[in-house]
Amino acid sequence: MILIYFLFISSFAKEILNEKGINLVTFSFFTCVSTLASCGFVPTNENMIVFHKNSGLLLILIPQVLVGNTLYSSCLRFCIWVIGKFSKDHNDEHRLKVDYLLTNSEEIGYIHLLPSLHSCLLVATVFGFILIQFVLICSMEWDSNGFSDLNFYQKVVAILFLSTNSRHTGETIVDISLLSSAILILFVVMMYLPPYTSFLPLNEKEELEDHLQPLQRRKMKSRKTKTLQNLLFSQLSYLVIFIIIICIIEGKKMVEDPINFSVLNIVLEVISAYGNVGFSMGYSCKRQVHPQRDCVDKWYGFSAKWSNKAKIVLILVMIFGRLKKFNMDGGKAWKLS
Q1: Which residue range is the domain that position 137 belongs to?
Q2: Residue 17 lies in a domain
Q3: Could you tell me if 118 and 192 lie in one domain?
Q4: Are 57 and 10 in contact (CB under 8 A)?
Q5: DSSP characters for 20-87?
Q6: How many domains in the chain?
Q7: Is 122 among the domain residues?
Q8: 228 located within any domain
Q9: What are the TM regions of this chain, as residue ranges (predicted)?
């Protein structure tokens, strides 16, 4: 679909790739895989900003962003259900397998195959978050500099694309440093949330936990395991520790260049790394309190201006974010009262 869009729909987008010397087929496959894998790499220096007026391309990428991450579980269950429908009258063995997968998802132990109710609530939660972001960005950024050169339809698609990418993929069509602080805080919250965050009513949650109790009893925890769990902090606690460490390392720059090296910019960079999103405030020479002649803008990555020690800490944050599912129960030993 991306390839067809460039060949037959938008000659302007094709000219952009030609000017940059990027092969059309390479760009199409690379962008498709990167978007589906929630990587966010785009083979252009400007991410997707250079295509911010190509609404058709953005609409093609939005479903890939959702299917590859937040809605992967729900789409997986839907595909299994469709296979069962098609094989219902043809193969009883296939139908039994499909029925077993759909009704015994907890026993299978595959974390991406959620129960039916949980999958439906996940869909509602994902689109609910997108709607909240869409409404807030429209109300606060509609006439901002980032969207000033777009018409009504292009603004709607661009804001929808930005709202969809804030959870994980991190492809952006605007320099997010131009957005208001309130929207940036909203992005921080969205990036912090795990992909399968969903609203689950208490009574339904209790039923699921009761159903899972027999499986948990089979895995009796040893004393060493309990001791280790008592020593673990929550995800938020570790992120605060990482942010404090980076602020200590970059303390001198925070004093000399307080606008670029603000706490909000550092927090957004760390949470973006933790959520494997890729949003960055970048670095602008115009925001320097004491301008330097040899300064170079690094809008594509604020961490490009960090010291090597801070970059190593950020790498650890990214690895920690990829492995966060193994410590989602951390911090339970702490009682807040």
Answers
A1: 1-205
A2: yes
A3: yes
A4: yes
A5: HT--HHHHHHHHHHHHHTT----SSTTTTGGGTT-HHHHHHHHHHHHHTTTTHHHHHHHHHHHHHHHH
A6: 2
A7: yes
A8: no
A9: 23-44, 56-83, 116-138, 173-193, 231-249, 261-283
Residue 335 domain-assigned?
no
238 backbone dihedrals φ, ψ, rounded to 5°: -65, -40
Does one domain contain both 167 and 37? Answer: yes
Q: How far, in Å, CA of 103 to CA of 257, rounded?
A: 57
Nearest to 120 by CA among 85, 75, 82: 75
Same domain for 284 and 194, yes or no, is: no
Domain edge (last residue) among 205, 224, 259: 205
The one-letter code for the residue type at 166 is S
Distances (CA, A) of 185 to 23, 152, 189, 198, 269: 37, 25, 6, 20, 12
Q: pTM of this prediction?
A: 0.82
